[in-house]
């Protein structure tokens, strides 16, 4: 993450800030007061305005945007300012982007030419059970999908992207490749369904002819079914034609795809009209109309053997039971991933995917349940078993409507499969995990032609098999594996509940995801234990191959988060690399320096433990409480042990998860430098230093505090630790004191999102859960305040954070224009600070005369620029006045911590800070570090 930390004397453009390569932690350089350029309004902070630092304009499509990396590699970083992937095509809404594709993929060939047959074979009772089990499985999966999909921005790859980012690249690639195979094979299923329907409607079009006359051992007349060779020949031709259409581009397919759904909806309307107008033996023999007697006769199952075409035959080779029917019907409820596969082309993925997917799932499941009752009461069992096109037979006014609807719906679904599968394979290849897939890589915006050819080859190979009922269970296994992966991903993320887990879809629970995963595995074994073993073995082999040959990638997956919660067991797995923002946990180092007296036998300020608990989500995390004993280690080692025991007991009493450490050192500064360098192990080192603001230093004339306080802040900057300083610690609420009002953030500098994350963690506590968050952004007068507000709101929305955004415009620093000093209630503090600094300067100059005209403070040479000092004082005064104006009634205020200026006396910095916190009762002063702690992406 590159951040501009040096003072600027002129307004820089966004590109300069984005490309700035100045290391964070550097101090403000000397300011030339003779410059004619406009100076920054917040001079002390050493930053330009928020609108420039964040580069938020690039996040809403204005100007150039940074392309999000497909997967973070070692050494890469995802900044919180990174933009959404650049998309040129028109974005789709919930209806056309999710609901229609899902409905088109779910409603397919199984319903038209197999559903009535399933009712005849299983009876009404067990058919309802088949539909309920399959529908429940997809419904629970849709809930898990909704939770994961709303936990951040999604890229291409659909379920593969979600599973991979949640369970890691090995599991993601393994299940993703199986889902690719399932999608490609599903294309063959749809092609065969279209061809079979066409040949059933026009028997004369068949090149070969097959006639079956034996049904249940009796001759009831010829029952024709398409020849296997006809299915193969026509299926290959249709697949090749569809591939040519796919090569025409996805835009053309998306443009005509909704048209395929209209015949489906119209055909459903005709079917139900036909059901209600049907009478005995009309429109065909075996049709009874809606009859209670027929309903009772068809309630129980009647499983039989059939030939390969599905026609009942006592000598048939295919034996059917409840398990086999579940496998045959399950493809009729698949297709719920169609919306997530289009995530890159949706206007609002976090709203469209849950609403559209669940609406399509509930709609189709309800339709299936109603259809079971109607079909079971409409025709005799013999008719249900022998008339494969019962839906066409009963359709009003003509069977041709159903044939046309079936053909168009299946061809549309086949197009979706032949379009989605290559893009899924290309997404896996582009992540550069498996080298063998490098041939299928495509550049952004290009069509995956090679992946399309490979998909067509798989589809044609399955078409050659020619048997719809043999292909269907194979697809079922691959889809169930994918659904199980989605459920397990949500289960893991929900169970770990890391700070980055904030899905907008709230109606989920880890138990539902676990039930969904269990149901997927159960259905797999119900269908065929042998197919299940083969499928799991295939996934295991791919997983093993990826582990051996694949390239490492840190996607912030759930397993890494689990390692943090099982730190002692998984420390070696975490390694020493930087933590991904999704796995970032606050590990506060609580500096127990009281800056004053504490009651006897109280080793730490009581409210520090309360505040430490507020930095954890549901108690997860570890705090390290440290204190320093002055003296020689050999002499005070036993005192340190006793003090550690006492502090540990106190932490347990305060019910704060953490450890106690006491360090013996010659001085406070030396002790803290040792702590900051050595405390922790691996990635379990503390990343935030928390301490109390020394409010008493002037009141009790503790002249050693400024140097110690400033030294600690500088040590944290050098050690790359975040800093949180609590002002008003005595007033900090405990867990029983409910707060109301707002949590106000004065977001002045880019801090990796730490201030935003702290505010979200505060809301998870009972004492602050009734509060609302307000984010105050500082802008120049000529800046586009409304544009900045919209950008920040969009940014917070993508981070799944609820907050009100308020933009405050400030004038640049111009003391002369203000008539010498601002006129507000803090003017007395401003004037007093000026007088104290002036007196301190006089004392320094008198001392310098005695020491060779070298200005010294805190034992170090310093450089004094009186004009710059006045600007720093004015900066803090302006910010303090703004806080008092807008946040006087806030429950807590968070503001950025300015770095101590180089070569300034520590006394001056304490004056700046005192002026900043003046009259603010409860304040958190926050400084981030070089890593981001929040991310836009799931």
From TrEMBL:
Keywords: Glycoprotein, Ion transport, Membrane, Potassium, Potassium transport, Symport, Transmembrane, Transmembrane helix, Transport. One of its GO terms (molecular function) is potassium:chloride symporter activity. It is found in: Membrane. It is a multi-pass membrane protein. One of its GO terms (cellular component) is membrane. The chain crosses the membrane at residues 95-115, 127-150, 171-192, 231-250, 257-278, 320-340, 352-374, 394-415, 450-468, 474-493, 514-546. Its main location: membrane. It comes from the Eukaryota. Residues 606-727, 738-937 form the SLC12A transporter C-terminal domain. Residues 97-564 form the Amino acid permease/ SLC12A domain. Belongs to the SLC12A transporter family. This is Cation-chloride cotransporter 1.
């Amino acid at each position: 993450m590159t951040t501009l930390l040096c003072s600027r004397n002129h307004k820089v453009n966004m590109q300069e800030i984005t490309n700035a390569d100045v290391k964070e932690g550097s101090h403000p350089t000397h300011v030339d007061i003779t410059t004619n350029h406009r100076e920054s309004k917040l001079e002390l902070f050493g930053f330009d305005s928020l609108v420039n630092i964040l580069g938020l304009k690039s996040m809403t499509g204005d100007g150039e945007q940074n392309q999000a990396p497909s997967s973070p590699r070692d050494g890469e970083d995802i900044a919180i300012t990174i933009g959404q992937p650049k998309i040129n095509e028109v974005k789709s809404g919930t209806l056309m982007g999710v609901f229609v594709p899902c409905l088109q993929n779910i409603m397919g060939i199984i319903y038209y030419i197999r559903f009535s047959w399933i009712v005849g074979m299983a009876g009404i009772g067990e058919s309802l059970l088949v539909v309920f089990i399959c529908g429940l499985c997809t419904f629970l999966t849709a809930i898990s999908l909704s939770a994961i999909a709303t936990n951040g921005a999604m890229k291409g790859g659909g379920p593969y992207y979600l599973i991979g980012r949640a369970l890691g690249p090995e599991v993601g690639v393994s299940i993703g490749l199986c889902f690719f195979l399932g999608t490609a094979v599903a294309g063959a299923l749809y092609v065969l369904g279209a061809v079979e329907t066409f040949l059933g409607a026009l028997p004369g079009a068949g090149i070969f002819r097959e006639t079956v006359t034996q049904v249940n051992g009796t001759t009831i007349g010829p029952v024709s079914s398409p020849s296997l060779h006809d299915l193969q020949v026509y299926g290959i031709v249709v697949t090749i034609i569809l591939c040519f259409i796919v090569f025409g581009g996805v835009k053309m397919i998306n443009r005509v795809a909704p048209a395929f759904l209209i015949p489906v909806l119209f055909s459903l309307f005709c079917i139900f009209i036909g059901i209600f107008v049907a009478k005995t033996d009309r429109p065909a023999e075996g049709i009874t109309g809606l009859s209670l007697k027929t309903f009772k006769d068809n309630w129980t199952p009647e499983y039989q053997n059939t030939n390969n075409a599905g026609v009942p035959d006592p000598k048939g080779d295919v034996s059917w039971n409840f398990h086999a029917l579940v496998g045959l019907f399950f493809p009729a409820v698949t297709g719920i991933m169609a919306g997530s596969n289009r995530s890159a082309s949706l206007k609002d993925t976090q709203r469209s995917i849950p609403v559209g997917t669940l609406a399509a799932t509930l709609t189709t499941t309800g339709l299936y349940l109603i259809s079971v009752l109607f079909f079971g009461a409409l025709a005799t069992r013999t008719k249900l078993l022998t008339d494969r096109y019962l839906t066409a037979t009963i359709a009003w006014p003509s069977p041709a409507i159903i044939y046309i609807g079936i053909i168009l719906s299946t061809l549309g679904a086949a197009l979706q499969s032949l379009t989605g599968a290559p893009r899924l394979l290309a997404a896996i290849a582009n992540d550069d995990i498996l080298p063998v897939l490098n041939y299928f890589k495509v550049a952004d915006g290009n069509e995956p032609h090679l992946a399309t050819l490979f998909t067509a080859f798989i589809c044609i190979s399955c078409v050659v098999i020619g048997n719809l009922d043999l292909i269907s269970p194979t697809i079922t296994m691959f889809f169930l594996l994918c659904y199980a992966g989605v459920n397990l991903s949500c289960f893991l993320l929900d169970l770990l509940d890391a700070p980055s887990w904030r899905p907008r879809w709230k109606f989920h629970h880890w138990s539902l995801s676990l039930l969904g995963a269990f149901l997927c595995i159960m259905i797999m074994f119900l269908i065929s234990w042998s197919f299940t073993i083969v499928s799991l073995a295939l996934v295991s082999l791919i997983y093993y191959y990826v582990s051996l040959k694949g390239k490492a990638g840190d996607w912030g997956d759930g397993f890494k988060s689990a390692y943090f919660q099982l730190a002692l067991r998984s420390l070696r797995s975490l390694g020493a690399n930087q933590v991904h923002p999704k796995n970032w946990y606050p590990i506060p180092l609580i500096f127990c320096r009281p800056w004053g007296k504490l009651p006897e036998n109280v080793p730490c300020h009581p409210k520090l433990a309360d505040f430490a608990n507020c930095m954890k989500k549901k108690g997860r995390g570890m705090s390290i409480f440290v204190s320093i004993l002055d003296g020689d280690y050999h002499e005070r080692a036993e005192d340190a042990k006793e003090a550690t025991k006492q502090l540990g007991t106190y932490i347990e009493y305060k019910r704060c998860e953490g450890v106690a450490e006491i360090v013996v050192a010659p001085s406070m500064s030396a002790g803290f430098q040792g702590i900051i360098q050595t405390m922790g192990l691996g990635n379990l080192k503390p990343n935030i230093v928390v301490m109390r603001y020394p409010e008493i230093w002037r009141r009790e004339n503790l002249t050693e505090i400024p140097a110690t306080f400033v030294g600690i802040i500088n040590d944290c900057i050098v050690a790359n630790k975040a800093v949180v300083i609590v002002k008003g610690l005595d007033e900090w609420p405990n867990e029983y004191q409910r707060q109301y009002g707002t949590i106000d953030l004065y977001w002045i500098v880019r801090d990796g999102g730490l201030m935003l994350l702290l505010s979200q963690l505060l809301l998870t506590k009972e004492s602050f859960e009734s509060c609302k968050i307000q984010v105050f952004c500082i802008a120049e007068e000529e800046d586009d305040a409304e544009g900045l507000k919209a950008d920040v709101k969009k940014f917070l929305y993508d981070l799944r954070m609820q907050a009100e955004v308020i933009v405050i415009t400030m004038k640049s620093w111009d003391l002369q224009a203000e008539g010498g000093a601002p006129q507000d209630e803090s003017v007395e503090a401003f004037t007093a600070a000026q007088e104290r600094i002036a007196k301190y300067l006089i004392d320094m100059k008198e001392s310098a005369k005695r020491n060779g005209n070298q200005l010294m403070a805190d034992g170090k040479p310093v450089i004094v620029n009186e004009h710059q000092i006045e600007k720093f004082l004015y900066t803090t005064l302006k910010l303090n006045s703004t806080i008092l104006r807008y946040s006087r009634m806030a429950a807590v205020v968070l503001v950025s911590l300015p770095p101590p200026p180089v070569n300034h006396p520590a006394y001056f910095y304490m004056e700046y800070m005192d002026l900043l916190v003046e009259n603010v009762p409860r304040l958190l002063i926050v400084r981030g570090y070089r890593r981001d702690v929040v991310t836009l992406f799931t």
